[in-house]
């Protein structure tokens, strides 16, 4: 009798949604696909047909626009670069970053250059950014932006001209952190290059240069940041729109050198792009809030595949890469090149953070080529 009462209560609460009879056919729950579908659906994105990159088009590769869908149903836009006259199945690399940038900027330059060196590559706009889908715009997510890299691997894995067992990724700036997070979970990624890295979680939680602050100061600043962001959420919801936080400043006079470097890339002909958040009005104020309590590098020490971390000697952000390497390997960096097993930290002499966006005299493309050819074989 007690069991019957429990079952009756569960049925009334909707916990059990089937008729309890001796007929097995009547015990099948309602088909969940009656209302929802699990089919991967591609959104019809509006993609430009113009070459609107901030770098010149190469005559050594073929280029076309492609789209693919991530696990959250967001359709991503990408530029695919293929070596001309290539035959057979080739190794492939997916590229994204910097944080707030678009594929017409640094990631496209990297992708085109690596395609010239024999790889099939894609440079993609992350979710909510550029020509990719996702609403609202100008936000980021620790989970979704990591998933964007995994979705790129999904796409490359099923291409007829790609060897699915030879896929790597390159993350630049903020997306370097996501590339590490992706490598920690996606065993299909055989090699990862991490360029001029930002750890967005650490930066969001602790602010810049946390190594110069005591723990109490960091906690107090983080709590005030929480208060400010949640007050902004209320204000945004009341207003019915999201407040933008502002992109790279229009006048960097008197500001730190790294701000002047960002200006020199994002606000000038060198790197400005109309779809780039950093070139324009930036993120929503609350757009990166979730990073405060979601550390994206938590399992970096469990990455078994090769990782090459590259940073500039004079970059304000260098400590992000050095800490990531030490956490990944247990080895403290020394000098300009530190190797621990299949992990390497390469420091580029006299290079700034932004130099590794587009400066061919500083970006170690020969080393990148050697790294991927050695590990995507």
What can be said about this structure in brief?
The protein is an alpha/beta fold and 377 residues long. The chain is built from ten helices and nine strands.
Keyword list:
alpha/beta; 32% helix; 377 residues; 10 helices; nine-stranded mixed sheet; Rossmann fold
Structure overview:
- The chain is 32% helix and 17% strand.
- With 377 residues, the protein is of the alpha/beta class.
- The protein has a domain at 61-199 and 296-375: Alpha/Beta hydrolase fold, catalytic domain (Rossmann fold).
- The chain has helices at 2-12, 106-116, 142-157, 174-185, 200-206, 215-239, 257-266, 318-329, 355-358, 365-375; strands at 61-69, 75-83, 90-96, 120-124, 162-172, 189-195, 307-312, 337-340, 343-348.
- Strand 5 (162-172), helix 4 (174-185) and strand 6 (189-195) form a beta-alpha-beta unit.
- It contains ten helices and nine strands.
- The longest helix has 25 residues, at 215-239.
What's the arrangement of secondary structure elements?
Blueprint: H1 2-12, E1 61-69, E2 75-83, E3 90-96, H2 106-116, E4 120-124, H3 142-157, E5 162-172, H4 174-185, E6 189-195, H5 200-206, H6 215-239, H7 257-266, E7 307-312, H8 318-329, E8 337-340, E9 343-348, H9 355-358, H10 365-375
Parallel strand pairs: 3-4, 3-5, 5-6, 6-7, 7-9
Antiparallel strand pairs: 1-2, 2-4, 8-9
Helix pairs in contact: 3-4
């Amino acid at each position: 009798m007690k069991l019957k009462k429990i079952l009756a209560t569960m049925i009334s609460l909707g916990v059990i949604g089937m008729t309890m009879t001796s007929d097995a056919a009547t015990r099948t729950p309602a088909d969940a696909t009656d209302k929802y579908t699990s089919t991967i659906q591609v959104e019809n994105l509006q993609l430009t047909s113009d070459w609107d990159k901030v770098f010149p088009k190469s005559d050594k590769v073929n280029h076309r626009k492609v789209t693919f869908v991530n696990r959250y149903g967001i359709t991503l836009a990408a530029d695919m670069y293929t070596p001309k006259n290539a035959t057979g199945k080739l190794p492939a690399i997916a590229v994204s970053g910097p944080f707030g940038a678009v594929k017409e900027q640094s990631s496209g330059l990297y992708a085109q250059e690596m395609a010239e060196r024999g790889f099939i590559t894609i440079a993609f706009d992350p979710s909510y950014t550029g020509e990719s889908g996702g609403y609202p715009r100008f936000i980021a997510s620790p989970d979704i932006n990591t998933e964007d890299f995994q979705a790129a691997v999904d796409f490359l894995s099923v291409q007829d001209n790609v060897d699915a067992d030879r896929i790597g990724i390159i993350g630049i700036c903020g997306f370097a952190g996501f590339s590490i997070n992706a490598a920690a979970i996606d065993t299909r990624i055989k090699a990862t290059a991490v360029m001029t890295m930002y750890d967005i979680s650490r930066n969001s939680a602790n602010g810049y240069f946390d190594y110069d602050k005591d723990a109490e100061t960091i906690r107090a600043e983080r709590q005030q940041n929480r208060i400010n962001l949640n007050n902004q959420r209320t204000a945004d919801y009341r207003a019915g729109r999201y407040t933008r936080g502002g992109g790279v400043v229009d006048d960097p006079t008197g500001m730190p050198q790294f701000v002047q470097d960002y200006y020199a890339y994002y606000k000038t002909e060198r790197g400005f792009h109309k779809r780039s958040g950093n070139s324009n009005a930036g993120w929503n104020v609350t757009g990166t809030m979730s990073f405060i309590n979601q550390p994206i590098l938590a399992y970096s020490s469990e990455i078994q595949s090769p990782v090459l971390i590259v940073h500039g000697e004079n970059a304000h952000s260098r400590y992000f890469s050095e800490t990531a390497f030490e956490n990944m390997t247990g080895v403290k960096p020394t000098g300009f090149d530190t190797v621990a097993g299949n992990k390497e930290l390469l420091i580029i002499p006299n290079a700034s953070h932004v130099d590794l966006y587009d400066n061919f005299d500083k970006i170690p493309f020969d080393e990148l080529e050697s790294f991927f050819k050695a590990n995507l074989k």
